């Protein structure tokens, strides 16, 4: 399946709303040009337009075309760093408290924003169940949860029958619930925010690939479809789809390819055995699984895919087998949907905020926590444009020049994933 195949997704089939953007047909003048119409870019545009800024958003595909319209839809309220000391080491003492608070509060902030703008996206905050794949993982993550609780993280420990009853899975014996977690229909969410941004005054252009980006005088000149776009600021919000428009930004992240499968509506007696309280679930493996049930009685099950040299994303057959391993009830289920996308990871598992030139900023690299953290980043990017000093933001300005051995790491992703699957399997025994 091509990574461009968004229409094969359950989200495309069940979206409460879609968005039709503008076409670039003439030269454009604006205060801020945002490149990327996913969560980060649209959230930035909404904040800026609400403050009277002339903002224009450009996307080579369309609103939600990238990871924002294809992800697993889980709203997980913390960064994927194991312990507070890992975050402290990554960002230093000045930013540690700010970023910890931003991360742990990111789910609450998103659900509050959804209520404010009355976005119809099947939003529910029923909690996030994280289950342990081995005894070693149980020890590690219990210690980590205890350490994070000192900084405001809430959690409840579940073991044995209590865990199996909550999850509906016989594959795990222990885990924790974070009550702030939840789920959304991601394509409905990004389209809903796009409508809100347009109502606030933002201009949103689709099928609008930015071809060149150049600093001219005190501002920037971009080109798209033979037309010139002039702006004072440029916001790069392209995440896993960052190309070579700014190689210094593109080299700071590594793209990876999550994949999901989705069922049609399942019988009540079957669906009610799985995640009966409506939590989302993921595990502690290196190559994690994640799943959730939908209001229409569908199941969505996800993991990490492998991108081939031809650009096709694979891994769906492995995913279907793993779904039955975790939930044997799904043995005879027909998976009607399968889709994938591209997200971005960073070496330290912390999102990257960059300001590589005057008036040019970027935010990306959410490491699988993008539904919540991208909205936090969008607010930060807007605040920077509106005059907040970079030193007062929750994210430090990254000085990272590039990921070491980036090309080798990208080409070797498939091998690494297969090795990690093997290690996970051995530990799970």
Which secondary structure elements does this structure contain, and how are they paired or packed?
Blueprint lengths: L9 H5 L13 E2 L2 E4 L3 H12 L4 E4 L15 E2 L8 H21 L1 H12 L10 E4 L3 H15 L6 E4 H8 L6 E5 L3 E2 L2 H15 L2 E3 L6 E5 L2 E6 L2 E5 L1 E4 L10 H4 L3 E3 L1 E6 L4 H4 L8 E4 L6 E4 L5 E6 L1 E2 L5 E2 L1 H11 L8 E6 L2 E3 L6 E6 L2 E5 L5 H16 L20 H6 L1 H16 L1
Can you describe this structure?
The chain is of the alpha/beta class and 429 residues long. The protein has 2 domains: 198 residues, FAD/NAD(P)-binding domain (3-Layer(bba) Sandwich), CATH 3.50.50.60; 169 residues, D-Amino Acid Oxidase, subunit A, domain 2 (D-Amino Acid Oxidase, Chain A, domain 2, 2-Layer Sandwich). The strands form 6 sheets. Strands 6-7-5-16-17-18-15-21 form an 8-stranded mixed beta sheet, sandwiched between helices. It has a 6-stranded mixed beta sheet with strand order 9-3-2-13-24-23, covered by helices on one side. α2 runs parallel beside α11 and α4 packs across α11. The longest helix has 21 residues.
Q: How would you sum up this structure in a few lines?
A:
The chain is of the alpha/beta class. Helices cover 34% and strands 23% of the residues.
- Average per-residue pLDDT, rounded, comes to 93
Whole-number tally of structural domains = 2
The largest sheet is: 8 strands, mixed
Strand order of the largest sheet: 6-7-5-16-17-18-15-21
Q: Note the total helix count.
A: 13
The CATH homologous superfamily of the largest domain: FAD/NAD(P)-binding domain
- Count of β-strands: 24
Poorly predicted runs: 1-6
Which class of the largest domain in CATH terms?
Alpha Beta
Q: How much of the sequence is in beta strands?
A: 15-25%
Shape: globular
CATH topology category name of the largest domain:
FAD/NAD(P)-binding domain
Q: Which structural class matches the secondary elements?
A: alpha/beta
State the end-to-end distance. 32 Å
Architecture of the largest domain, CATH level 2? 3-Layer(bba) Sandwich
What share of residues is helical?
25-40%
């Amino acid at each position: 399946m091509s990574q461009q195949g968004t229409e094969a997704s359950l989200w495309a089939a069940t979206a409460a709303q879609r968005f039709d953007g503008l076409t670039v047909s003439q030269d454009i003048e604006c205060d801020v040009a945002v490149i990327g119409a996913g969560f980060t870019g649209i959230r930035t545009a909404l904040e800026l337009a609400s403050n009277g800024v002339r903002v224009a958003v450009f996307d080579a595909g369309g609103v939600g075309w990238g990871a924002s319209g294809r992800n697993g839809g889980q709203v997980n309220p913390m960064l994927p760093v194991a312990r507070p000391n890992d975050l402290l080491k990554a960002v230093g003492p000045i930013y540690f408290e700010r970023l910890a608070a931003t991360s742990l509060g990111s789910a609450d902030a998103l659900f509050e924003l959804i209520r404010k703008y009355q976005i119809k996206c099947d939003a529910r905050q029923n909690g996030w169940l994280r289950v342990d794949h081995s005894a070693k993982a149980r020890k590690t993550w219990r210690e980590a949860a205890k350490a994070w609780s000192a900084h405001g993280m809430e959690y409840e420990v579940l073991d044995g029958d209590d865990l199996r009853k909550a999850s509906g899975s016989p594959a795990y014996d222990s885990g924790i619930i974070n009550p702030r977690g939840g789920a959304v229909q991601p394509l409905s969410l990004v389209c809903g925010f796009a409508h809100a941004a347009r109502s606030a005054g933002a201009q949103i252009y689709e099928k609008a690939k930015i071809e060149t980006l150049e600093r001219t005088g005190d501002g920037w000149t971009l080109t798209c479809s033979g037309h010139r776009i002039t702006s004072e600021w440029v916001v790069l919000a392209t995440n896993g789809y960052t190309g070579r428009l700014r190689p210094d930004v593109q080299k700071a992240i590594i793209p990876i390819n999550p994949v999901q499968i989705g069922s049609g509506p399942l019988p009540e007696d079957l669906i009610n055995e799985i995640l009966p309280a409506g939590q989302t679930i993921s595990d502690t493996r290196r190559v994690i699984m994640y799943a959730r049930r939908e209001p229409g009685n569908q199941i969505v099950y996800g993991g990490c895919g492998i991108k081939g040299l031809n650009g096709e994303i694979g891994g769906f057959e492995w995913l279907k087998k793993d779904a039955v391993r975790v939930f044997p009830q799904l043995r005879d289920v027909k998976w009607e949907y399968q889709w994938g996308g591209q997200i971005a990871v960073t070496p330290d598992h912390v999102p990257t905020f960059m300001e590589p030139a005057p008036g040019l900023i970027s935010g990306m690299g959410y490491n699988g926590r993008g539904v919540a953290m991208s909205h936090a980043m969008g607010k930060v990017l807007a605040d920077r444009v509106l005059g907040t000093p970079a030193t007062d933001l929750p994210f430090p300005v990254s000085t990272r020049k590039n990921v070491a051995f980036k090309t080798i790491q990208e080409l070797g992703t498939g091998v690494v994933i297969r090795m990690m699957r093997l290690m996970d399997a051995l530990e799970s025994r």
